[in-house]
Specification:
560 residues; alpha/beta; TIM Barrel; Oligo-1,6-glucosidase, domain 2; Immunoglobulin-like; 5-stranded antiparallel beta sheet; 18 strands; 15% strand; globular; binds 1-deoxynojirimycin
Length: 560
């Protein structure tokens, strides 16, 4: 069990189990595979694991449509196996965080099956039913309302049709949520990541909405809704009894709104996953995708760093199961050429991206495969993709474009790129399984794999280890004051972390060519020592010089 505030010094590894490691030879990742790989996870230098949902689910949204909150999906093992993983993780000093998905359930959850039966059923008000729909859009599949023949009414689904929204205004539903929390906390888990938690309170009367984004009409009526902080306080109370911590996922939340969850009287969460820095290429809104913009990224980073400083605590992440691979988005993969198996500066940009976020103030999260620099997959037909939102986007937007153009959008934006099997070695199926895996393996697995990178001291994998180890042993890199330099520079992201006399200066080039780097005037005269660089050797003599493609350096600075 976690004691308060420990999470500030920690870092976490996210496991999306279906593609992590198959331990029982059926082509699907599972808890046996996780058990086997726990020492590897530990070797990265992280302090815990966040499990994306491992519960029974029909997989309309790969685990985020839950049909039983207190059990394990048979594809992944059973509760006994989960307990073994938990015990082993704790033995290794790794905490375990579960995903709490309570904005919606699966339509195959027994509560929904009952609720559909009629208005006098005890579960009738567990969901949001109406005789007439409003104009809201769902985020995954067309309109937000689906007619149910059995009940003779429409139900609300903010995500896929198979994900009906729970009615959190019903106190019985909130009691169910608390009982789920207690179930896993009694077993010994250490915390929760709470899925789209800022959507759980809908405005009374469910009024029609205005277009927020083209595909999110109604969002202003359910995002950070009227009773959100009351409901969150109820859940917080349970977590407080156990001393566990909570991280909320806050899509589209501004930093000002986030602070209401993270500080003051309404504090209910310890951290929040924000989305601002994931918009530097507008990928979330596929229909207006634009080239990556470093200035946008830096603004988002700095906005959150400054606003939370001294008041709340950031999460730091670049990848998760909802975003394509970061090297393909913000690294050299942007200049994709079908002639190359991996981007030209795959290694350099992969390592630079690690340094760009791990040394900010906050708790770093690393998503499975990110630490070895996995990249996006390019499948040849939309029918090969399995993610519901990728399919909807393909079939909804830009219908006048050619098939190739539409597929290209999917190549750069699909969540499926984050969900290909982890590449463990260069044997068949990338060492993920002994049989054909449930989903396509990226064909660059002969180069991009854990085994090869273990053997290479200059690999992306070993660079992640170095970054995490450096952060772990420095109070300045954990708690120090953040400051950004040259915010208008289009190629360089430069920031410092300071505490007392100690200062670290982190410089990251996002350019695929050499760039001249200025040195901040007010730091001139300080002594500087290079302590980390993403190029193997040759410390350049002067910082006031040129940076190689995607070069990243960390200096320790001292007053002379
Ligand atoms: C956010 C989750 O991260 C995503 O994977 C899921 O599809 C939606 N919430 C709906 O649960």
């Amino acid at each position: 069990m976690s004691s308060r505030e420990e999470y500030k010094t920690e870092s976490y590894y996210q496991i999306w189990i279906r593609s992590f490691k198959d331990g029982n030879g059926d082509g699907i990742g599972d808890l046996y595979g996780v058990y086997e790989k726990l020492p590897y996870v530990k070797s990265l230098g992280v302090d815990g694991i966040w499990f994306s949902p491992v519960y029974p689910s029909p997989n309309a949204d790969f685990g985020y449509d839950i049909s039983d909150y207190k059990n394990i999906h048979p594809d992944y093992g059973d509760l006994d196996q989960f307990k073994k993983v938990l015990e082993k993780a704790h033995e290794l000093g790794l905490k375990v965080i579960m995903d709490l998905v309570v904005n919606h359930t699966s339509d195959e959850h027994p509560w929904f099956i009952e609720s559909r039966k009629g208005k006098d059923n005890p579960y009738s008000d567990y969901y949001i039913w109406r005789d007439r729909p409003n104009n809201w859009d769902s985020l995954f599949e067309g309109k937000a309302w689906e007619y149910d023949n059995k009940r003779g009414q429409y139900y609300l689904h903010l995500f896929a049709k198979k994900q009906p929204d729970l009615n959190m205004d019903n106190p019985k539903v909130r009691e169910e949520v608390k009982s789920i929390l207690r179930f896993w906390l009694d077993m010994g888990v250490d915390g929760f990541r709470e899925d789209v938690i800022n959507f759980i309170s809908k405005r009374e009367g469910l009024p029609d909405g205005f277009p927020f984004l083209p595909a999110a009409k109604g969002m202003s009526h359910y995002k950070d809704g009227p009773h959100i902080h009351e409901y969150m306080a109820e859940f917080r109370k349970v977590c407080d009894e156990y001393g566990c911590f909570q991280i909320g996922e806050g899509p589209m939340t501004s930093v000002g709104t986030a602070l209401k969850y993270l500080s003051g009287d309404t504090k209910s969460l310890d951290m929040m996953f924000s989305f601002d820095h994931m918009m530097a290429d507008c990928l979330y809104t596929e229909y207006i995708h634009r080239p990556f913009d470093l200035i946008k990224l830096k603004k988002a980073f700095t906005r959150w760093q400054n606003a939370l400083n001294g008041k709340a605590w950031n999460t730091l992440y670049l990848e998760n199961h909802d975003h394509p691979r970061i090297i393909s988005r913000y690294g050299d993969g942007r200049y994709f050429s079908p002639k190359r198996k991996i981007p030209k500066y795959w290694k350099e940009s992969g390592k630079m991206l690690a340094a760009s976020y791990i040394f900010q103030q906050g708790t770093p999260f690393i998503y499975q495969g990110q630490e070895i620099g996995m990249t996006n997959i390019r499948l040849s037909s939309i029918d090969d993709y399995v993610d519901v939102s990728s399919k909807t986007n393909y079939h909804t937007y830009h219908l006048k474009d050619t098939v190739e153009e539409r597929l290209h959008r999917i190549h750069i934006s699909s969540r499926d790129s984050a969900r290909t099997p982890v590449q463990w070695d260069d044997s068949a199926h990338a060492g993920f399984s002994t049989v054909t895996p449930w989903f396509y393996v990226n064909q660059n697995y002969d180069v991009v794999n854990v085994r090869a990178e273990e053997d290479d001291p200059d690999s992306i994998l070993n660079f992640y280890r170095k970054c995490l180890a450096l952060r772990k042993k420095s109070r300045t890199l954990i708690y120090g004051q953040y400051r950004e330099y040259f915010p208008r520079d289009r190629h360089i992201y430069m920031y410092s972390r300071t505490m007392g006399d100690v200062m670290y200066l982190i410089i990251c080039s996002f350019a695929r060519h050499r760039v001249h780097v200025k040195f901040p005037k007010d730091l001139k005269g300080m002594k500087k020592k290079l302590i980390l660089c993403n190029y193997p050797e040759n410390e350049p003599k002067d910082i006031n010089g040129h940076f190689r493609p995607y070069e990243a350096r960390v200096y320790r600075m001292k007053k002379s």
